[in-house]
Amino acid sequence: MKLASIDVGLKRIGVAINLTSDIVTPQNAILRKNRNQAANEVKAFLKEWEIDKLIVGFPSASEEMQRRINHFVGLLDIDIPIEYCEENMSSIEAEDMMKGQIKYKRDGRVDSLAAKIILERYLSKKS
């Protein structure tokens, strides 16, 4: 089963995929100009990779972000299963992993690394 995860943010959407075994690969983040454009790009990404299930990072700490994420997921209008996975601290963990690498930039690498962490958490719970 091919899986993808997204880490929905206000400026970027981190993306990661799991196509075989337990290898999770971060992909280029989707830069968010507006909700509809971002939703269309996520849908196109899922279709291009023939993803069977989408895992969405979900913050238990912020009701406002939960509402925004639910709204965004509703815009996707996709016919594959969607599951939510706790994302607490995934972005901070991703930032720590990036420290020491090229100057820290807001290019989406941290966002997609956070999506990778979310998908790895999901997979570890399933095994």
UniProtKB/TrEMBL annotation:
Domain YqgF/RNase H-like, residue spans: 1-94
GO CC, one annotated term: cytosol
Species the sequence originates in: Malaciobacter halophilus
Keywords for this protein: Cytoplasm, Hydrolase, Nuclease, Ribosome biogenesis
EC number: 3.1.-.-
CDD domains xref list: YqgF
Subcellular localization, as worded in the UniProt entry: Cytoplasm
Functional description taken from the UniProt entry: Could be a nuclease involved in processing of the 5'-end of pre-16S rRNA.
Family the UniProt entry places it in: Belongs to the YqgF HJR family.
InterPro entries according to UniProt: RNaseH-like_sf, YqgF, YqgF/RNaseH-like_dom, YqgF/RNaseH-like_dom_sf
GO BP terms, alphabetized: rRNA 5'-end processing
One Pfam family of this chain: RuvX
Top enzyme category: hydrolase
The name this protein goes by in its record: Putative pre-16S rRNA nuclease
